[in-house]
Design brief:
alpha/beta; 5-stranded parallel beta sheet
């Protein structure tokens, strides 16, 4: 009887292109595009799979992937300068806060400039990523155009599918029955689509950027008859311009000061310049600026002050057409728009493999899974500012690891650092599903660059955890 052939040991990601990792990128939004660019510039074998028929993700209005939440009047709430991609300036004349069409066109031009689209399989759904015994994944792909399915082997999977496409409603949902119409802001396009909200009494739930944008638009001429905004807690509503410049461009507070002191100084200066939130008729926040995701609006405070938008606390219950609030007040409402955020969904992984229960997915600096070493994440973070510089650095970091030039810390040290990172998040930010992935870009970029240097030194010394190529294994049925 022949002895069984032993499985070859995994190989480091080194050597000529034929021995480099084969990489699956899920999504061709901006996180997928910057990942593709970094992988291709390193000479790696990679393909992105996109559910829609064009790049750009959520910035493509009415995207045929069915996942875009862009409304007709949407403009980005980080400035063009802050979100500009490396070696790719915005066209001359671009406004400080571009609309969704301009953002989508910018991403289209980026993909064309760096020849990325020929590495994207459009109208292709990644249905399932099954981990293989020798490492890597068997990825089942569904071609929506052909109606066919096939399974391919990849050494690594980079998840770049975004986290603003699976709407979340309040849990627990308020008791009682509401007789009016209900929709999530993900479906909202304008005051007439998908519901005609003109001359109707509308309640918007939430105080994030989408909630405030929708409420302000519905309070405009010829729109809703009445607009109320319900929020469980106060938020800092920051104007888009401070001293004539976009709010995210520069600061008067030195970065070398301790972080909490900086937040106290910024909060004090804001109150001196713009007053307290209650001065505008808004609920007073119970935290400092920088301890929760900011809300940018130059319009909401004035509309509240003018009585065009009414403020209400949390919903307590429904009684037919009436909504009863936690302070005992009640109002007759025709329609409710829940702008209550999103769930992190990873439908291509089995839940027991990788899942984000309650939007919690512990990752080393929001990129590396601590145990599943062939899965990586780009853009799965909530930033105080633009995600684009974050995603670019994350993509370059993954490439360094796949190319053998960066090694992760040994498992015990990685676990220790990951626990410390989670403590920082929970201690700094308001406790909510929205802040489980929150990062502060300047601090994050500094920390990641320092870790990349340490990991490069580990790789040169043959220490730490390098990326290991998957063993060949048996053929995968197609």
């Amino acid at each position: 009887m022949n002895a069984p052939v032993p499985t070859p040991p995994p190989k480091r990601a080194e050597g000529p292109p034929g021995t480099r990792p084969r990489v699956c990128v899920i999504g061709a939004g901006i996180s997928g595009l910057v990942t593709l660019r970094a992988l291709l510039e390193a000479g790696l074998d990679c393909t992105a799979f996109e559910l829609g028929s064009r790049v750009g993700g959520l910035w493509v209005y009415e995207n045929d992937n069915g996942r875009s939440a862009a409304y007709r009047s949407l403009a980005i709430n980080t400035s063009a300068r802050a979100m500009e991609l490396t070696d790719f300036p915005w066209p001359a004349g671009t406004p400080d806060y571009p609309g969704h069409e301009q953002v989508a066109s910018y991403f289209d031009a980026y993909a064309e400039r760096f020849e990325l689209t020929r590495h994207v399989r459009f109208r292709t759904e990644v249905e399932h990523c099954a981990p293989l015994e020798g490492g890597g994944y068997a990825v089942t792909l569904h071609s929506l155009a052909e109606g066919s399915r096939r399974t391919e082997r990849f050494d690594a999977v980079v998840v770049a599918n975004g986290h603003h496409w699976a709407p979340s409603l309040p849990s627990p949902f308020p008791p009682g029955q509401f007789s009016g119409s209900i929709l999530h802001s993900h479906a909202y396009r304008d005051p007439t689509t998908p519901l005609d909200l003109r001359q109707r009494r509308v309640l918007v739930v939430g105080i994030g950027n989408s909630a405030v944008d929708v409420a302000c638009e519905l309070a405009g001429p010829g729109a809703a008859a009445q607009v109320l905004l319900s929020t469980r807690r106060g938020a800092w509503v920051i104007p888009k311009y401070i001293l004539g410049k976009p709010a995210d461009q520069g600061t008067l507070v030195p970065h070398w000061l301790p972080a909490r002191l900086r937040r106290r100084i910024v909060t004090t200066l804001f109150r001196l310049w713009f007053g307290r939130m209650r001065d505008w008729g808004l609920p007073e926040p119970d935290h400092l600026i920088g301890e929760a995701h900011p809300t940018l609006s130059s319009n909401l405070p004035a509309l509240v002050k003018a009585g065009s938008v009414g403020i209400r606390p949390a919903i307590e219950r429904f009684e037919g057409e009436r909504v009863v609030f936690s302070d005992g007040r009640s109002d007759s409402i025709d329609a409710i728009v829940f702008a209550t955020g999103y769930r992190v969904e990873l439908p291509f992984f089995e839940a027991e493999h990788i899942a984000a229960q309650g939007n919690e997915l512990p990752l080393f600096h929001r990129v590396f899974h601590p145990t599943h070493r062939n899965a990586f994440f780009v853009g799965l973070a909530q930033t105080i500012g633009a995600i684009m510089p974050i995603a670019e650095l994350q993509a370059r970091w993954i490439v360094e690891h796949l190319s053998g030039r960066y090694s992760l810390p040994e498992a015990p040290e990685l676990d220790r650092q990951l626990a410390a990172q989670r403590r920082v998040v929970h201690e700094r930010y308001v406790s909510s599903a929205r802040h489980t992935m929150q990062i502060d870009p300047p601090l994050y970029l500094r920390a990641v660059r320092a870790e990349m240097k340490r990991g490069s030194a580990r790789a040169r010394r043959g220490q730490g955890q390098p990326f290991l190529l998957a063993s060949p294994g048996p053929a995968i049925p197609r």
